[in-house]
Amino acid sequence: xxxxxxxxxxxxxxxxxxxxxxxxxxxxxxxxxxxxxxxxxxxxxxxxxxxxxxxxxxxxxxxxxxxxxxxxxxxxxxxxxxxxxxxxxxxxxxxxxxxxxxxxxxxxxxxxxxxxxxxxxxxxxxxxxxxxxxxxxxxxxxxxxxxxxxxxxx
Amino acid sequence: xxxxxxxxxxxxxxxxxxxxxxxxxxxxxxxxxxxxxxxxxxxxxxxxxxxxxxxxxxxxxxxxxxxxxxxxxxxxxxxxxxxxxxxxxxxxxxxxxxxxxxxxxxxxxxxxxxxxxxxxxxxxxxxxxxxxxxxxxxxxxxxxxxxxxxxxxx
DNA sequence: CTACAAGTTCAAGTCAACTTGAGGTCAAGA
DNA sequence: TCTTGACCTCAAGTTGACTTGAACTTGTAG
Lengths: 154, 154
Known about the structure:
The structure is a homodimer.
Chain A: E1 4-5, H1 7-14, H2 18-26, E2 33-34, E3 40-43, H3 46-58, H4 63-70, H5 81-88, H6 91-115, H7 143-151
Antiparallel strand pairs in A: 1-3, 2-3
Chain B binds a DNA duplex (30 and 30 nucleotides) through α2.
């Protein structure tokens, strides 16, 4: 009934800490109205947005990236299924890439390490065409690679 | 021929920054002898160890975990293929879990978000049985979850 | 002999995503 | 009236994996 929820109600329902919610607001991922007292009031639809944020994080996206995605949502109405689907459609590719890397690593457990060829400069497994040209500062692997890629805008 | 390499030689051959190598040594992941000058000299076998470290990092392991694994290597001889294999064997499970999660997330892109059911408290996709009981400080997702799990020793 | 590159140590800085703490406001109940 | 509890802001702290900078030493080439 009550369409506006307090920060702790949202926190409980979403599993996201109140401090994190404030942080998300500060970073522009979510917005809130204010009660007369200055307390935040969130529309129920924020829960769906939070679900999206959590989801995207599990895919390894940074908050900046997520904000950019959320900015694509229509401002004139509460986003519906098709709006969300438009955002998340392209992610399938991302997930597939990640799965592919894992499969490669898994294969390497049997092949590469087992057979004894494991060597940084020769092994196609450990050095899959991108370790040579380092990106940002320091070795950025795994999720790190993802982040570096997006920080540079690719 | 020369069996001992300088830190920059190792850095070049491994793609791991010299500063990172010093850091790894400080953290006990690798060891070095010293030349009369006080400069580090690494045996060539260190390259294999570094390959392992890089590999493990791409699997989302922390340096502490990796060190623990490396400590299981025999001290009485340069580790061979079977030694490495014994370490990395159990990881297949880990990788499979990760792949499974990705598959689940991928399925959710079509199902959950598309159909409009996306909701933190109801969705089996976003809330796969562990978001309720939070672990460490703050939301630890994705790799974060992995780390948290191991930090707590499970 | 003098550069200069390559190495050393140690302390401090970086980044993301939060958390924690101090200090303050406000409304409702005993 | 007093207290409790929920909320606020703002600054500073946390974690992991490094990087960067300052100040210094060594080995080698010209």
